[in-house]
Amino acid sequence: MTEPIGRNTAAAIALAAIHVRHAAGADALLAVLPADHYIAQPERYREIVRAALDEARKPGRMVVLGIPPTRPETGFGYIERQGESVTAKGAPIFAVRCFKEKPQLVVAKEYLASGNFHWNAGMFFWRVSTFLDALKEFLPKTMR
Fold first, then answer.
1. 3-state SS of the chain?
2. CA 126, CA 128: separation in Å to the nearest integer?
3. What's the farthest any 2 CA atoms get from each other in the chain?
4. Is 31-126 assigned to CATH 3.90.550.10?
5. Structure confidence at residue 12 as a pLDDT band (50, 70, 90)
6. Taking Cα atoms as reference points, which of 52, 77, 63, 50 lies closest to residue 131?
């Protein structure tokens, strides 16, 4: 499914999740992938996606891909990680502390210097049921 006009991505993902739930069941895996990314290392990307899907198969898990930043960037959202990583299929996995919207340059420089932030790739993986349960809890108006 595509969102032809950017209005509410959560609602578009919810609609897709509901369609997948009807077609494949509540435990089906769902990947949310933007269409505007350039993948420089496609085989490595496929490995990371396989690791993300393995993690997303676990009940209650929601996975977001983060890109290690190479510069302070004000045009991207950021993910703040916490704790030590675990490794799945050669990919490090961190718990997410919080998401940060596109920061001012001074803040982006702080994020880069801290080493605790990744760019938000906007790529998400989860069971349909996990996403819809989270949506009901955190964005109940979207589920009406």
1. CCCCCCCCHHHHHHHHHHHHHHHHCCCCEEEECCCCCCCCCHHHHHHHHHHHHHHHCCCCCEEEEEECCCCCCCCCCEEEEEEEEEEECCEEEEEEEEEECCCCHHHHHHHHHHCCEEEEEEEEEEEHHHHHHHHHHHCCCCCC
2. 6
3. 47
4. yes
5. confident
6. 63
Q: How far is CA 62 from CA 9, 106, 135, 142, in A?
A: 16, 30, 12, 18
Closest CA to 60 of 126, 142, 135, 136: 126
Residue 111 near residue 69, CB atoms below 8 Å:
yes
What pLDDT digit, counting tens, does each position of 42-94 carry? 999 999 999 999 999 999 999 999 999 999 999 999 999 999 988 888 888 99
**Residue 93 near residue 85, CB atoms below 8 Å:** yes
